[in-house]
Amino acid sequence: MRLPITDDNRRWWTLAAMCFALFMVMLDNTVVNVALPAIQRDLHMSISGLEWTINAYTLVLAVLLVTGGRLGDLFGRKRMFLFGVVVFALASAMIGFAQSEAWLVGFRAVQGIGAAFMMPGTLSIITHSFPAEERGKAIGTWAGVSALALAIGPVLGGFLVEHVSWQSIFFINLPVAAFAIVLTLIAANESRDEGVARTIDVPGVAAITIGLGALVFALVEGNQWGWGSARILALFATAVIGLVGFVIIERRSRAPMVDFTFFRSREFFGANAVAFIVTFGMFAMFFFLALYMQNVRDYTALQAGVRFLPTTLLIIVTAPLAGRLSDRIGSKLPMVAGLLIVSGSLFWQSFLTTSSGYGFLVVPFMMMGVGMGLVMSPMSTAAMNAVPVTKAGVASGILSMTRMVGGTFGVAALGALITALGRDRLGHLLPQAGSGQLDKLADALGAGAAPAGAPSSAMDDAFVHALQGGMRLGAAVVLVGAFVAAATISSRRRVPANAGQGVDAAQTELAA
C-alpha cells in the first residue's frame, strides 16, 4: 500500500518517522529498569554488572550526542539518523541473544552509539522540516511522544518480562526500527550544513569524548567510590583538561564541531541552562521516588511504574499544547510557569513520611507532569530557533547532551546528599553504631533489605529524612531555573532570520 505522501504533508510524515524512532529510544530507557531482576537471575549478574547495564548506555550516549549531531550537519542528518537506527536495532537484537554479563553490557554501550546519532537527528530533522511558525507544535508532539514512551515503558516492560521473557523487551525494537527506517526513506528530505567542509574535527572529537566521558563516569561512580577518592579526583581533573582542551581546539579549528558563538545568544544559553536544571530535578525525582515506593512502601516495580502515570500522561497532554502556545506567545511564559510548578511539586514531595500513602503523591505527581510539559517543548523550541537552521544538528546534540548530563548530575548530587543526611540521621537513631558501621548503613539506604543488625524502621526513617532534604534541594535548584528562564528567554515569539530555510531549503539540498 502506497503512503499518501505529498509535498504539503511530507513534513508531518517526517515527524511521524522521527517520533517512532524517539519512542523506541525512550521506551528502552524505562523497560530495562523493570527487567533488571530477571536479567540478574538468568545471566547470574553481579550488582556492579546490573549498574553497568544502565551506565554503559548512559555514558556512551551522553559523550557522543554532540558528535552525532555535528556529523549529521556535515554528512547528512537523514543519513546519520538512519545509521543510528540501524546500529540501535542491531545492538538490541544482540542483547536479546546475550549469554553473559560482558556481552550484554558491551552491546548496551553499542546501543548508546546508535542513540547518540538518533536523538539529535530527530530534533534537527524536525527543525529543518518545519518552518519556525510551526516548529513549536511539531516539537511539542515530539516531546509528547517521549513522555508516552516513559509512561508505557514500565507497564509494557513488566508485562513482557512476566509473560514472555526479558529478551522480548529488546526484540520489540526491531519492528519499530524497521517502520522508522522505511518511513524516513520515503518521507524525509536530506539536509546538511552546506557552508562548511565535510571534514571531521578529530582533535575536537577526541577532546570532548575524553572530557565528557571522564565527567559522566565520575558522576556515575562518585557515590560508590567516594567523592574525595583519588580515582574520582583524577576523573574530574581529566574532565577539566579534556573540556578546556576542547574549547581551545574549537576556537582554533577551521571546521569546529561547536560554534561557541551559539552561546552569545541569551536564548540558546538560557534554554541549555534550563535543560540542565529541569532534568536535574526530574531524573532525581523518578530515581529516588521509585526506591521509596518499592523499598519503603513495598510496591512491585510494575505497581511503582503505574503510579508514575499521572506525571507521564500529563506530560503527553501538556507538551503539545505548550508547543503550540510557544508558537503564539513565545517560550518564556510557559517555561517560567512550568519551572515554578515543578519546583512546587518537589517541595510538596519533601514532606512525605515513611507512612505516606499514594494519595499524598498524586497531586505533586500531576503537578510534575503539567510543569514538565510546559517546559520541555518551549525549551527545545527556544534553543533551536536561536541558531541558524543549518546548525540544527550540533545545536540539538548540545541540548540533548545538556539534558543527559543534568539528569546524571541530579541523581549523583542528590545521592551524595541523601547518603550524608541519612548517615547523620542514623547516628542519632543508632547512637551505639560505630563510624564504620554508619558508613556501611548509609551506603545501603534505600536498598530495601536492611543490613544485619540494623532495624529496618531506622533505615527507612533515615532514608525518608534524607529524601526530604534532597527534594528541597531539587526544588531550590528548579526555582533558580525559573529565574534563569525569566532573565534569558524572550517574551516574544522569536523567528530566526533564516526561518524560511526549513522546508524550502530541504527541497534544494542534496539527497543521499
From TrEMBL:
Entry's transmembrane regions: 12-32, 52-69, 81-99, 105-126, 138-160, 166-188, 200-220, 232-249, 269-292, 304-321, 333-351, 357-377, 398-421, 469-489
Location of the protein in the cell: Cell membrane
Any one GO molecular-function label of the UniProt entry: transmembrane transporter activity
Any Gene Ontology CC annotation: plasma membrane
One Pfam family hit: MFS_1
Membrane topology: Multi-pass membrane protein
Start and end residues of each Major facilitator superfamily (MFS) profile domain: 14-493
Entry keyword annotation includes RNA-binding: no
Alphabetic keyword roster: Cell membrane, Membrane, Transmembrane, Transmembrane helix, Transport
Domain of life: Bacteria
Entries under InterPro entries matching the protein: EmrB-like (IPR004638), MFS (IPR011701), MFS_dom (IPR020846), MFS_trans_sf (IPR036259)
Protein name: Multidrug resistance protein MdtD
Biological source species: Capillimicrobium parvum
